[in-house]
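Hey, I'm writing a tutorial for new members on how sequence and structure tokens pair up, and I'd like a real worked example in the thread rather than a made-up one. If someone can provide the structure for the chain below, I'll link this post from the tutorial.
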Amino acid sequence: MSVINQMLKDLDKRQNDQKSASNVSVPLPANNSSTKLIFVIVAIIIIVNIVGIFAWQLYSENQQFKAQVQQAAITLKNDQFRADTHKNKVSPSNLPSTQVLALPVTSKAIKHALDESKGLANVPQSTVVIAPDKENNALANDLGETIEHRVLTEKVTETDDTIVIITPVQAAKAAVKPEAVTDIVPAKSSLTISRTQLSPQALAANKITQAEQAMERNEIAKAESLFEEILLVVPAHETARKQLAALWYGKKYYQEAVNLLSQGIALAPQAEEMRLMSARIYYEQGQARQAFNILNPVNRSDSTEVQTLLANTSAELNEHESAITAYRKLITLEPDVGRWWLGVAVSLDSLGKFVPARDAYRQSIARNNLSTSAMQFARQRLIELGE
């Protein structure tokens, strides 16, 4: 129990100590710190104002000093100018006419101009122009102003009409001497690109080559486009027209191909190949009459293909006289072909010309190159005609 009591006493003591500690009041700082802070701020503001006033006074004094220096320099120049003018005895007020130039000058330039004017004593009226020099330009830039002076003129007692003018340009020309050219600057090479416009024929030739290459690559659409471009440039280009018609015929665009060839025939009536192509399309479409009409204007052609198609269409249309003419033309071109003789024999037989027909049948059999059916037909007709 004594131990427990002792612990309770210690606990009571600790609680009393904590209460006494909490009852102790902490002294608060005085209000002196805020007063000091205000005082410091006011002092800083006063110091800044004093420094600003002092800097402004220095700046104002510096500007006044520069103005005084500039005024003194201008006064010095004017005094020197008057002294030099008085020394040389030149009075601008007595001159008959004066000219005012706003040019910066120096005392050295004025003295030089006056010295030059002394050498013009024998001239009735002279004008001396005082030109600017580099020294005065530098001074004018430093002072920030340009000094203006009047041109001095001097009148001489003798009368003459000669006027001598000394100008800055003349002085500059006299001072500048030509220098010898020692370095030779090579001329720069230039590249000139010009466009050369091809003639329609040359352009068509290039496009024909491109179209043929496109056809070799089986690029039919590109080839068609190139052929159409050629015909736009050169409408009478027969090769492009035939190639394009062949492509359209291959696509079974029969009417478009015929129209295209008809335009070419209108431009070149004796174009046998275009007539032959158009006639073949008509004949294959069962239009023998149109094929015959297309080919008949070139019935004197030496083309085997033209004469063969013309003979076939003529025979089919019972145009036997035209067929006989075509077959005889074929016999002239290829006399050993039996079917040409058989064609003549059939047309003569149809016209009732039996004697020449029998001779033609014999010639066709003698060539011995007819098909079996054609050979049998020729022999049968010979028997029927009394052979």
